[in-house]
């Protein structure tokens, strides 16, 4: 098994959809601040009241432990952090973990190495992403086993493995015909047709590059809290590509969505409640749906989204189709970085943990759910 430090790191990062290689961060935190930043831009940082994004009970940055510093970096700057281990949900960078895999116990390997048992266990907890992330963090063996279950369509370059253009049933018929032709010709002995991959577990999201970087100087507050990320941001998907990916999603739902049991849509900019109402009824075998950080699905869409799922589930009940379990993480729109008078950080538009002292989070969420007589 991984040691506790690496386990803790992986646990936190898989919960946040991936982040860091389990390495010592002391070299990053000791890096001196750059003097090349614009003075006017940094005036709010030097205001006596400004405490950075998180104050950690008044401690300066140097007083934090290495783990607290890493958690801070992930909380504020994810995914633009050094040594990120994941390119997308359940999609690891190759050679991302610094420690070699340890041999697991015989019972552990047999349980999680048996496909039928493993799929039963994972299928049960998939609707709760935090539980799935916790299971991934137990060891590398399980993490990569979970990764191997999923098809991962890349919305960054509109790569849907061709399943947005071809029907699964037609492809399987062609493969069967090829096998029959080989057998009839007598040339099929010892040869197998390579079947195109298709799994009932599907994640559709942009995928960040395999190689991160380059690193950059970190702008810090007076208390040394990092205000800018330590690596340059990856180029964002352009408008045309993101729109094509959305149409590919619609094409896929028409051709092959009936074969999907578990679906995660992450950071898909054009997905909204109307999209869900269009594609989900086509997925007759769907058992769970996760919507995370999609630009048009904000906190205000919680009510309409759950009402739409309720309506779909009521129809599925009459048809004898599986009930859909849902998991939803809304997108929060960023406000301006600093208040105009320079007396602190403005935060974001939305209900966030760091705003717990300013907003009635419980009441805000309750207000969104008010009027829903039945939850999915």
Supply the key terms:
alpha/beta, 9% strand, 37% helix, 9 strands
Topology:
Layout: H1 4-15, H2 26-29, H3 39-42, H4 66-77, E1 86-88, E2 91-92, H5 106-113, H6 115-125, H7 129-136, H8 140-149, E3 150-154, H9 168-185, E4 201-205, H10 239-255, E5 262-266, H11 273-279, E6 288-292, H12 302-319, E7 325-329, E8 333-334, E9 348-349, H13 361-369
Parallel strand pairs: 3-4, 4-5, 5-6, 6-7
Antiparallel strand pairs: 1-2, 8-9
3D architecture notes:
The chain has 376 residues and is an alpha/beta fold. The protein has 13 helices and 9 strands. It has helices at residues 4-15, 26-29, 39-42, 66-77, 106-113, 115-125, 129-136, 140-149, 168-185, 239-255, 273-279, 302-319, 361-369, and strands spanning 86-88, 91-92, 150-154, 201-205, 262-266, 288-292, 325-329, 333-334, 348-349. Strand 4 (201-205), helix 10 (239-255) and strand 5 (262-266) form a beta-alpha-beta unit. Helix 1 (4-15) runs parallel beside helix 4 (66-77) and helix 1 (4-15) runs antiparallel to helix 7. The radius of gyration is 23 Å and the shape is globular. 28% of the residues are buried. Residues 1-54 and 352-356 have low confidence and may be disordered.
Task: Give a summary of the structure in a few sentences.
This protein is an alpha/beta fold and 376 residues long. It has helices at residues 4-15, 26-29, 39-42, 66-77, 106-113, 115-125, 129-136, 140-149, 168-185, 239-255, 273-279, 302-319, 361-369; strands spanning 86-88, 91-92, 150-154, 201-205, 262-266, 288-292, 325-329, 333-334, 348-349.
């Amino acid at each position: 098994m991984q040691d506790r430090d690496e386990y803790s790191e992986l646990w936190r990062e898989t919960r946040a959809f991936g982040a860091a290689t389990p390495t010592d961060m002391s070299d990053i935190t000791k890096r001196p601040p750059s003097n090349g930043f614009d003075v006017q831009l940094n005036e709010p940082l030097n205001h006596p009241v400004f405490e950075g994004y998180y104050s950690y009970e008044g401690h300066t940055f140097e007083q934090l432990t290495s783990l607290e510093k890493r958690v801070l970096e992930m909380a504020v700057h994810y995914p633009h952090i050094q040594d990120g281990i994941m390119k997308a949900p359940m999609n690891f960078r190759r050679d991302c973990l610094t420690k070699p895999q340890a041999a697991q116990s015989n019972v552990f390997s047999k349980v999680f190495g048996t496909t039928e048992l493993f799929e039963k266990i994972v299928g049960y907890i998939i609707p709760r992403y935090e539980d799935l992330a916790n299971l991934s963090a137990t060891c590398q063996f399980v993490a990569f086993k979970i990764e191997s279950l999923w098809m991962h369509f890349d919305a960054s370059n509109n790569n849907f493995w061709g399943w947005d253009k071809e029907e699964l049933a037609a492809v399987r018929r062609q493969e069967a015909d090829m096998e029959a032709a080989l057998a009839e010709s007598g040339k099929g002995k010892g040869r197998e047709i390579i079947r195109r991959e298709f799994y009932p577990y599907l994640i559709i999201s942009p995928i960040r590059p395999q190689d991160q970087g380059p690193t950059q100087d970190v702008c810090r507050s007076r208390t040394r809290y990092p205000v800018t990320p330590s690596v340059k941001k990856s180029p964002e998907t352009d408008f045309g590509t993101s729109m094509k990916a959305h149409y590919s999603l619609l094409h896929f739902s028409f051709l092959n969505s009936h074969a999907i049991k578990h679906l995660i849509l992450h950071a898909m900019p054009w997905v909204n409640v109307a999209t869900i109402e269009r594609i989900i009824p086509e997925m007759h075998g769907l058992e769970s749906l996760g919507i995370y950080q999609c630009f048009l699905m904000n906190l205000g869409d919680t009510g309409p989204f759950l009402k739409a799922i309720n309506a779909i589930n009521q129809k599925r009940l009459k048809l004898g189709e599986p009930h859909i379990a849902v998991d939803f993480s809304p997108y929060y729109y960023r406000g301006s970085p600093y208040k105009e008078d320079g007396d602190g950080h403005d935060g974001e538009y939305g209900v966030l943990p760091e705003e717990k002292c300013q907003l009635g989070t419980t009441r805000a969420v309750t207000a969104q759910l008010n009027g829903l007589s039945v939850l999915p």
